[in-house]
Amino acid sequence: DAKTTQPNSMESNEEEPVHLPCNHSTISGTDYIHWYRQLPSQGPEYVIHGLTSNVNNRMASLAIAEDRKSSTLILHRATLRDAAVYYCILSNAGNMLTFGGGTRLMVKP
Amino acid sequence: GAGVSQSPSNKVTEKGKDVELRCDPISGHTALYWYRQRLGQGLEFLIYFQGNSAPDKSGLPSDRFSAERTGESVSTLTIQRTQQEDSAVYLCASSLSRFSGNTIYFGEGSWLTVV
Predict the structure, then answer these.
(1) Cα A70 from chain centre
(2) What is the pLDDT of residues B59-98, one digit of tens each?
(3) Which residues in chain A are contacts of B93 at CB distance < 8 A?
(4) B chain contacts of residue A57, beta-carbon cutoff 8 Å
(5) Is the pLDDT of residue A43 over 60?
(6) CA diameter of chain A
(7) What are phi and psi of A80, to 5 degrees?
(8) Which of A58, A69, A109, B47 lies at a 20 to 30 A Cα distance from A76?
């Protein structure tokens, strides 16, 4: 299974942009890159996903490197409610998500 | 709302008892997943159902764990002779199909405590 590597934790100030990196050097051509986040005591929540092109939605933007070996989740203006564990995941055949450790994002007021 | 629904939300059971956890996927979703998350840890895959195909049970930790799903509807995860190490939140998720570009939607989980 293709694996992802993320920093264990990051800090951000409220109202500032946050760039959460993810490395996936063994990604295959058909793997989609998914991002989920998990707030305390809640189930994971879908954030965004993409294949090759950069993607934008109301929650975030996803920037995918040209060689697809890395990607960056961009939160344009962090709020206190964005404090969560962010998971970068590659979906394999069967769309089974294998969750790694994720990045714990702390947002300071 | 039409999200993934799980019950019970919380369950406290005595060691050695059996428990059943229920998941109602989003209507029309053919793929259904069960995950386990111990306190402070990441999600562990347990089992996956896709339509009428044979389920992928590769993540079930022991033969005390089993799951069923009737067609494309409700799923039940059963843990027999519960042990304290089974204490965790059990998360159910569903997606339209097994296509890797589909979004997977998670329920809020069933919190199991074995005393």
Answers:
(1) 11
(2) 999 999 999 998 788 999 999 999 999 999 999 999 998 7
(3) 43-44
(4) none
(5) yes
(6) 41
(7) -60, -30
(8) A69
